[in-house]
Write a structure and sequence with these properties.
mainly alpha, 18 helices, 3 strands, 71% helix, globular
Length: 462
């Protein structure tokens, strides 16, 4: 079936495959936004780096905040938990607003920039811990959630035929953008300068997010790159392999339809488990390293390696998932994340610094790689048109995982010590890998790319 619409400045065609899925062809990326679509990888990557330090470098500021504000460790761990709660919780409502057109991508990024600034200002000047809970936990977390959801979903819309590696690359900015701030907060910031350091960091990162977001633009619904024929196997080897291993969704699922497939709850639970383990490692690796007798500079190095590998791993696993399949790579990542928790505990207990750094890096890889897998898998399973809302449902598991990984993690450490906590974390991740075995793309029998369309694509109207 082929229709032509010439009401837009550039004519386009809408074609459907045998499953009834529609593809919009004819408009190039330059036609739509005046620049190549690679900019919708670069700019979201920059935006993600702008929000990363609030999660991945926060634990490095713990000692200074503890002394400067007289906040205890429980206050700070729960503050991170609240940040993650709002960062994950805003994804679904923000996605609905984005898809309805009420919240353009540019304005979502501007709100994220404002939240980033308010978060750092509240850490610097909060007269009471409750103010920090609101300013950093609520406003900064919600702002980061808007930026995260906007950036990740933007990539899937512009690269529907090869989203794994691109999504992973952008997702990586959420980790290694924090690296310089880990060293800044650990090695330079103290009670004499923490206010101006935090405010300066907030202003800089808010500007990064705002400038990157100013140039954001969504493609039209159902857009598909003209050079990739959606009804036949692509000539491009990378695109062909990616589509064979991760065929596109059989239809554009609404959030209600996606939930009714019963696949979303399984994805939600898997992300809950693995994200909780990741947050636990971020929150407790520094204090565990301190208890093991490693110096502050070494622990900061370990956290930086964790963040670097975390970010790099997101891009690598995204690329691998295009080649070998999203589900297979997700199971592998769950196993790696789980086993690395045992390794961190063992290396810390025997006070072996090289092994501690190695297992910390491996944990960073596993903890970061889970997110692009779920982001790309959601678009693979349910389509790109409603991906902001559909991924928002899956990503909302961070509502719970942040509190479990950080807040409840503190409770478990207090009751069972680090040994019990790390063993539990590793076991939870391994169990998530087992649950992932049951994931399957809705509406498609195993095997097969796209059902063949008996009629050739008409070129009329180009």
């Amino acid at each position: 079936m082929t229709t032509t619409n010439i009401s837009a400045p550039v004519p386009y065609r809408e074609v459907t495959d045998a499953n009834g899925r529609m593809y919009r062809l004819g408009e190039s990326d330059v036609d739509i936004m005046g620049r190549k679509r690679k900019w919708m990888v670069i700019l979201p990557w920059v935006g993600m780096m702008g929000i990363s330090s609030a999660e991945y470098a926060f634990a490095s500021a713990e000692d200074t905040l503890h002394i400067a504000h007289s906040w205890n460790s429980a206050h700070i761990f729960w503050m991170l938990g609240i940040w993650v709660l709002f960062q994950g919780g805003v994804a679904f409502p923000a996605g609905k607003l984005r898809e309805s057109g009420k919240l353009p991508a540019r304005w979502a990024m501007m709100l994220g920039a404002l939240g980033t600034l308010l978060g750092y200002v509240s850490l610097a000047y909060a007269p009471h811990v409750i103010v920090a809970y609101i300013g950093f936990g609520m406003f900064s977390g919600a702002g980061a959630g808007m930026v995260y959801a906007t950036c990740v979903n933007m990539v899937g819309k512009w690269y529907p035929e090869r989203k794994g590696g691109k999504t992973g690359f952008v997702n990586g900015g959420f980790a290694y953008g924090s690296v310089p701030f880990v060293f800044l907060f650990t090695g330079y910031m103290d009670v004499t300068n923490f206010k101006w350091v935090l405010v300066s960091v907030g202003l800089f990162l808010a500007a990064v997010v705002a400038v990157a977001g100013y140039f954001f633009k969504d493609p039209p619904k159902n857009w598909w790159p003209e050079e990739i024929d959606p009804l036949r196997k692509p000539d491009d080897k990378r695109a062909r392999r990616a589509l064979e291993k991760n065929p596109p969704a059989v239809k554009q699922y609404t959030p209600k339809e996606a939930w009714q497939t019963r696949v979303v709850p399984v994805m939600w639970f898997c992300l809950l488990c693995t994200s909780g383990v990741n947050i636990f490692g971020i929150a407790f690796q520094v204090p565990f390293g301190d208890e093991a007798g490693f110096t502050g500079g070494i622990v900061a190095t370990a956290m930086s390696l964790k963040a670097i590998v975390n970010g790099t791993g997101r891009g690598v696993i995204g690329w691998l998932s295009d080649r070998y399949g999203r589900k297979q790579c997700l199971i592998f990542v769950c196993i790696v994340l789980g086993l690395s928790q045992y390794g961190i505990l063992w290396s810390g207990n025997i006070e072996n610094l090289p092994l501690f750094l190695v297992f910390s890096s491996i944990s960073g890889f596993g903890g970061g790689a889970i997110f692009p897998m779920f982001a790309a898998m959601t678009a693979d399973y349910f389509g790109e048109n409603n991906n902001a809302s559909n991924y928002g449902m899956v990503y909302s598991s961070k509502l719970v995982s942040g509190l479990l990984g950080s807040g409840m993690g503190a409770v478990v450490v207090g009751a069972w010590g680090y040994s019990g906590a790390f063993v539990l974390a590793g076991s939870i991740s391994l169990f998530a890998g087992f649950v992932a075995l049951f994931l399957h793309q809705p509406g498609r029998p195993k095997g097969g790319l796209i059902k063949a369309n008996p009629a050739p694509i008409s070129r009329d109207g180009e």
